[in-house]
Amino acid sequence: MEIDLTMCKVRSWSWNDLVSIVWHANNRNVWINLRDRFPHPYTLADARSWLQSVSEHRPETHFAIAVKEEAVGGIGFVLQQDVAYRSAEIGYWLGEEYWGRGIATAALLAVTQHAFEAYDLCRVYAHVFEWNHASARVLEKAGFTLEGRLRKSVTKAGRTIDQLMYATIRE
Predict the structure, then answer these.
(1) Entry pTM
(2) pLDDT digit string (tens) for 10-43?
(3) Where are the domains of the chain?
(4) Quick one: which of 28, 88, 106, 112 could link to 77 by a disulfide (CB 3.0–4.6 Å)?
(5) CATH class for the domain made up of 2-169
């Protein structure tokens, strides 16, 4: 898949992204806002493992965020199962040097639209750690609504914190 946006491109991951993933992902300021399955430090072996998993995953639901053909972040969604089968959880990360440029918002808008168009979804949602005000703002700019606070629902870096639940729905 490939979606050309003004400031970036959302596209399928490639083995050519190996070095740039490590370069942008191996950053504590990126890691602190993500689930622990996103390792820190982020190594070449981690990038290989990631690329292997996404190359085999069907349907394709995880994508690179690229600027000038270089992968500088990632975005993807997980289709839910059972009674939640019409929902998907979305998540994203971006290399720190690209923060504050509107790239995450543009990618989130495009991938949310893709998820709604490609699947029979009525809801896309995201969880944000309480301290991640920038990501909450990205979700709000992309039309997501704050639905609630999950009190003391996760522990990250030794701190038990709240998560904010954002969602957008297709009417």
Answers:
(1) 0.96
(2) 999 999 999 999 999 999 999 999 999 999 999 9
(3) 2-169
(4) 88
(5) alpha beta
